[in-house]
Amino acid sequence: MTAAAPDDDGCWLSAAEQARQVKAGARTARALVDGYLARIAADDRDPRRLGAYLHVDADGARARADAIDAAIARGDDPGPLAGVPVALKDVLVTEGVPTTASSKILAGWVPPYDGTAVARLRAAGAIVLGKTSCDEFAMGSANEHAATGPVRNPWDRDRVPGGSSGGSAAAVAAGLCGAALGTDTGGSIRQPASFCGVVGLKPTYGRVSRYGAIAYASSLDQIGPMARTVEDVALLTEIIAGVDPHDATSIDAPAPALRAALDGGARGLRVGLPEEYFAAGVDPEVAAAVERALAILRDAGAETVPVSLPHTRYALAAYYVIAPAEASSNLSRYDGVRFGRRGGDRQASLLDMYRHSRGDGFGAEVKRRIMLGTFALRSGYYDAYYKKAQQVRALIARDFTRAFDDVDVLAAPVAPTAAWRLGAMAHPIDEYRADVLTLACNLAGLPGLSVPCGFTGGGLPVGLQLLGRPLDEATLVRAARVVERGAAIDRRPA
Amino acid sequence: MSDDVLDRWEPVIGLEVHVQLATASKAFSSSAIAFGAPPNSLTDPVVLGLPGALPVFNRRALEHAVRLGLAVGATIRRRSRFARKHYFYPDSPKGYQISQYDEPLCEGGAIELVCGGQRRAVRLTRIHLEEDAGKNTHTAGTTSLVDLNRCGVPLVEVVSEPDVRSAEEAAEYMRALHALVRYLGISEADMEKGQMRCDANVSLRPRGATAYGTRAELKNINSFRFVQKAIEHEILRQARILDGGGTVVQETRLWDGAAGTSQSLRGKEEALDYRYFPDPDLPVLVVDDATIDGLRAGLPELPMARLDRLVALGLALDDARTLMVDRDLGDYFDAALQARGDAALQARGDAALAARGDAAAARSLANWLVGDLLGALNRDGRAVADSPVTPAGLAALVRLVDDDVISGKIAKDVLARAYASGEAPDAIVEREGLRQITDAGAIEALARQIVEANPKQAAQYRGGKDNLLGFFVGQLMKASGGKANPQLASELLRKLLAG
Amino acid sequence: MDALSREDVEQIALLARLALDDDEVERMRVDLAAVLVHMDALAEVDTTGVEPMTHAVPMDLRLRDDVAAPSLPVEVALRGAPEVVDDCFSVPHIIDKSGTAAS
Ligand SMILES: [Mg+2]
Ligand SMILES: [Zn+2]
């Protein structure tokens, strides 16, 4: 998608271009908001609607747009995202706007505060258009585990958009917002970005404050942008990144100058190709698209070198111990006492109130992971599961550290396949396996990015995954920009 | 407690004391701390455990805990860790308490105390940081009500080794710990406000045995008096079971102060499994040497150092203990002693006396403070810090007594009046001319009048009724308005009656 | 890992405070067992002397100055609660009257 897109409502423009036009007076924020609201309403009338949004804050968005237009009329600068309508994954806490994590247990909850990333977007002039569907509490890889039903892939409405940030990916891909935020715990930004043909960045763990991100697995969760261009992803990351007094795990490092790094090119870049990520199991059409992207990088002067990350084969097991264990703890607060839904009848004992609030309020996948995590943390099992997984995690991280002694960035497929059909994952473990190429990045805390690089023969998007050194998002956007230019994808979902 | 129980059984007691740290904001968020605020008026997203909220630890709470660790001679871990302790309970919004588990801030150390005229040290296992829970109120109906104001208040949990051997010693341990945290300024430790709470693990073993018996944990002991009563009660309860051939069940028991009994909490739910794991929201808590050195340098005189100083000054151990356990009282004494020394220095130019403190003067001052003044303050429920008689005023009064300028009886009267009015005691003495008559001539004249006015008693005295001397002294003191020096009066009367 | 029994599943569900009906218990038993088979791969890895990685990026705990900020208004704090009585969160009667479970 380029800034030259002809649509007169501006809805396909990049977020950066929308802000430039709004600030220049070429387009009003209100017109952008109204354009998106009209498109969302049209999609809602479609019997095979995408279902990307759980909640659209039409009144709030219009009011905010008018305020921004008024500010510009006064000569004020509302900020680098002036007037850009954004969609937020529903695990991001928004003051005054319902936030449910796609779960029945939080139905109707209206938070009294904004999370830090959301507050920073608003402060930069962005307009919160609405909240997007996701897998319940971000647990899933297809967006099929939302209490409100699945989201469809804009490229093929019989297919999943990926998950868990599937609603955000679908909204960006279908031109239903200027840009979006998602969260990525084991690939939940990168995989739906790949499935929907958009750019998604999971920053370094701690780069973006988690304050106001409903926790799934605290040591892995990270908020990141999803957008139609690499430039947008760079812009949004610059805005939401930075140390936060509300998050003790946020990193106190200078804000990344990502836009300045965009046009650095690939000359001299050493790109590592982890052999374990190209092993059997990757769909040949996906592999071919990735190979074309690597050719683009080589043509631009990069050197590709094979590397090995020997503990990759244990990443899935480590992840599916650590993430459920932390989740079982994080989700203890949903108890029917202070917010959300209470289960059990009014005569129930306290114990039954807890059991039914939670048993009836959580969906099957969430309960499965809570059970798994509770199992792993029980006394007597802790050493064999959680502690062991954290040790394996250290070895996985060490593999990356060694690889980065020799290369600047790693390149790989995002997922073994393109988007699968709705309902195709028969068993939980099959869906877990689909994360095999994304979750090691979270275990090691590294930044990871997915950039569209081609299509399967059936017309499904494929993304290239780039992984970088801690805090080196700059190299990721620089390499992604080369791929974006080289692939020159100029198609939209029908 | 019947002594025969203690002849047969030796109590083994370990204490777990939670102490609220004096901070303006909570352990993990900037929510304010206040006692008695309206329900749920001191919360924020972190305290409420709202989705997305994250903990950030309070530096002052850490510093307070390090101060305590240094004061008890504990090892301060340079790297400690917060863990999550899971249980579902309405006063625990997150479903877990942030506490410390296998890597606590402080390990080892000891609490020193005085019990039964002896100094003792009770070893500590650990001191760790954690957050308090909210409060549940139990209505008469079918619901309980939850107030989260207290939720997230920073605590240290001080865990002792099973070194305590009697209920009285447990109470002294609490007093010593209470004194210590108050001296350190790290807690108000007001037990009535729940700022210091005690759980006690109690077991009995036959005298002479080394193995421990089965213990019961007593919870909810919230006053010094109850510490002693609850443990005495538990010792008797266990002794009765053991004497009857039964076995003590390992369980948690809740002390009911009003009823003076405890009840078992067994059967409230399934066996607990806290599922501890390192809190992923809170990286390793690092305390560097510079921080520790700085905090160590800032420590005030500690209770036991004060006790040693007071004993060296010549005070009896029990008086010194009384002045030690209450920091304000000890401070009052020090100020009075200072004023006493300054005055002595001025009066006599005796620098050595002023510097070392005169043992007799110190004892006298302690007697007046602990006896008369503290008695009056306690009677009125007034704090030492609010005493109408200042340390300098008390010192001046006691000096007048010690120097025989006024009698002890007059001093008591003056002190009572100074206490009531707030006037300086020495000013009262001067204004009312209460200085003793030490002029032998004047007293002798009075003595003659008394003897002449009471011929019958004089004859009886001379006839061998020696104890009538007191009658004559009393008459003389009355006639002098209490101002005659009693020793001198007594001497002159004896001489006169003999003559 | 030995196969999970229904009793194991029920015990874990009680710890996690999840009411599961009979079908769910059985499905959970099968699903968890299938997943746990994969977790056993971890046992193959020699982790002797490896420090568990508790945080993705090594860092020390950053502390907060002890400054109090305004609280949420009571009505905001209580707004999302299913049941409120006398400005308190109301819950079914707590049988254990210890007043707090913190220890
Ligand atoms: Mg304890
Ligand atoms: Zn405790």
In words, what does this structure look like?
- The complex is a heterotrimer of chains A (494), B (499) and C (103).
- Chain A is an alpha/beta fold and 494 residues long.
- Chain A folds into 3 domains: 15-261, Amidase signature (AS) domain (Amidase signature (AS) enzymes, Alpha-Beta Complex); 270-310 and 399-487, D-Maltodextrin-Binding Protein, domain 2, CATH 3.40.190; 317-383, no CATH class.
- In chain A, 39% of the residues lie in helices and 12% in strands.
- An 11-stranded mixed beta sheet of chain A has the order 1-3-2-4-6-5-10-11-9-7-8, sandwiched between helices.
- The longest helix of chain A is centred in the C-terminal third of the chain and has 24 residues, at 383-406.
- Chain A is globular, with a radius of gyration of 21 Å.
- Residues 352-356 of chain B have low confidence and may be disordered.
- In chain B, helix 3 (167-184) runs antiparallel to helix 4.
- In chain B, strand 7 and strand 8 form a beta hairpin.
- In chain B, strands 1, 2, 6, 7, 8, 11, 12, 13, 14 and 15 form a 10-stranded mixed beta sheet that branches.
- Chain B has 499 residues and is an alpha+beta fold.
- Chain B folds into 3 domains: 3-297, no CATH class; 303-432, no CATH class; 440-498, Arc Repressor Mutant, subunit A, CATH 1.10.10.
- Chain B is 43% helix and 19% strand.
- By secondary structure, chain C is mainly alpha-helical.
- Chain C has a domain at 6-43: Histone, subunit A, CATH 1.10.20.
- Chain C is flat, with a radius of gyration of 22 Å.
- Chains in contact: A-B, A-C, B-C.
- Chains A and C meet through helix 10, helix 11, helix 12, helix 13 and helix 14 of A and helix 1, helix 2 and strand 2 of C.
- Strand 10 of chain B pairs antiparallel with strand 2 of chain C, so a sheet runs across the interface.
- The complex binds magnesium ion and zinc ion.
- The site of zinc ion has 3 residues of chain B, from loops.
CATH architecture of the domain at 6-43 in chain C: Orthogonal Bundle
> Which second-level CATH architecture of the largest domain in chain A applies?
Alpha-Beta Complex
Bound molecules: magnesium ion, zinc ion
- Percentage beta strand of chain C: 5-15%
Summarize the main sheet of chain C: 2 strands, antiparallel
The CATH class name of the largest domain in chain A reads Alpha Beta
List the secondary-structure elements of chain C in sequence, H or E.
HHHEE
Query: For the report, how would you describe the main beta sheet of chain A?
Result: 11 strands, mixed
Distance between termini of chain A? Answer: 14 Å
Strand content of chain A: 5-15%
Helix count of chain A equals 16
